[in-house]
Write a structure and sequence with these properties.
Elements: H1 3-37, H2 51-80, H3 90-110, H4 115-139, H5 147-169, H6 174-194, H7 196-199
Helix pairs in contact: 1-2, 1-3, 2-3, 2-6, 3-4, 4-5, 5-6
Length: about 200
């Protein structure tokens, strides 16, 4: 085996893991669209789409985008750019954590018609992600900037909001859907605002 082949193996493995992760996330997004637009297998007229279902889908969409964006960048920068600095098996830990997040996103997509269930899965997602962020931050041997800290702070803040909304979800009030959507939009806005250079680094 040549040195070039040995060097390419870690990068090929990461590309494969990212591909599998992308497939799961794409399936979750497709399911969310299907659950919202065609809840009974037949597409609804655009004017017939329930506002509450659209609010849940909006919450799902503005959450899955930064999660996928940030996780993919982390894997590419950490393992493709610095493969020799990582401990053996660390990539698998990251992948399994992200795979679980993808599965939870799928569960969120399937529960888009039940606010209480959706909020429950959303909370599980944030708790898992906060644990993964902590693992990533303390185990990282590369420069990760302030992004993990902000992710943890935003996750904890959103968990508190979800805890409050979960108790109100049983009432079925429209305001609960509006607050959930608004909170998720604000979370994503702050995420991209505070971690802009992580998501969109300047070219050297």
């Amino acid at each position: 085996m040549t040195n070039n082949e040995s060097t390419d193996q870690p990068q090929d493995a990461i590309k494969l893991l990212l591909y599998l992760y992308s497939v799961v996330m794409a399936l979750a997004l497709t399911t969310a669209v299907s659950t919202t637009v065609a809840p009974e297998g037949k597409a609804l007229n655009p004017l017939e789409l329930p506002i509450r279902s659209l609010a849940i889908f909006g919450t799902f969409f503005v959450t899955i985008v930064p999660f996928y964006h940030g996780a993919s960048l982390h894997m590419l920068r950490t393992y493709q750019n610095n493969p020799k600095t990582r401990k053996k098996g660390e990539a698998l830990v990251d992948f399994f954590a992200l795979a679980l997040e993808g599965i939870i996103f799928y569960a969120m997509a399937k529960s888009a018609t039940s606010l209480e269930t959706f909020i429950s899965w959303f909370g599980v997602l944030l708790i898992l992600d906060t644990g993964w962020v902590g693992f990533t931050y303390f185990k990282s041997q590369t420069e990760v900037g302030q992004a993990p800290k902000w992710w943890a702070v935003l996750n904890c803040g959103m968990i508190l909001i979800l805890a409050l909304l979960w108790g109100l979800a049983k009432t079925g009030e429209s305001q609960v859907y509006a607050i959930l959507f608004a909170a998720s939009v604000i979370r994503t806005f702050i995420d991209y605002w505070k971690c802009y250079h992580y998501y969109f680094p300047k070219e050297k």
